[in-house]
Amino acid sequence: MRKNTLELTIATPSRVWFDGVEIVSLRAEDASGAFGIRAGHADFVTQLTPSVVRWSGADNVARYCAVSGGVLFVSGGTQVSIACREAIPGDDLEGLAAIVRCRHADEEEALRRARVDELRLHARAVRQILRYLRPRADAGGSLSTVAGTSPQ
Residue ranges of the ATP synthase F1 complex delta/epsilon subunit N-terminal domain (predicted)? Predict the structure, then answer.
């Protein structure tokens, strides 16, 4: 690693997307807004908002990774680590935006289906409870017979 570079690591619970990638600069976003990191930066910890992290290497080519929030650590002025739930890397911003929109639409559709399934289960449970509580025609309206015991 050269003196004016950083090592970038981006990891999710299921995968390490980038590990020790040599970069020159990084831009990210937290609740206070966008910020930049270069070699020699003071140790730093912040909570990222869902956003796109941008960096460039010695070749000055911009790289991107959409993150679903997470935590960014700068240590020793040479290492930048990001831990997040989801990461979607991309080489161009337009392509990354399309992937993120598609995933977001898929997640919204899955949530909608889950809500519909939940409502159906709830309605079925209510119908079964009402059927159980409704007096049976052969019981003569007696609660004891509905509960399965006979009067004495």
Answer: 6-87
